[in-house]
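Troubleshooting: if your tokenizer reports a length mismatch, compare your output against this known-good record of 155 residues.
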Amino acid sequence: MIKVLFVCHGNICRSTMSQFVLQDMVNKRNQADYFQIDSRATSTEEIGNPPHRGTVQKMREVGIPVLPHRATKITWRDYEEFDYIIGMDTWNMRNLNRMLKGDPEGKVYKLLSFAGTDRDIADPWYTGNFDVTYDDVMEGCEAFLDYLVEQGEIA
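Known-good structure output:
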């Protein structure tokens, strides 16, 4: 079982979108049984809230199921449980490294690093552009699955 945790600031836009996108991808590849996919926040600002309406609208527009979700904050227990903890931007990465004791097991990654770039996934909470965020999330998730194939973790 490959346990993947996506993380952004509030856990209502980018991390939930990434969770839904990757879940849809592995479902379509008939590999859902090999994955546990979830998402968290680095802040407490949105705790308990559902995915942002812009994320929900974009997922419906592209035919990706929106899963039941309420925003929760990442904990050390999550660090112990998950294999991959994937942040969306430089600020998330700083917060994750601080919150997760400097990432002693090397589990923290920036999503677009799998696509060979250090670009941030822009926060649509501020930009209002869920299309650009979706394109970047798709690029990152596809590259992440390619990485897992290259590492021999999935076929």
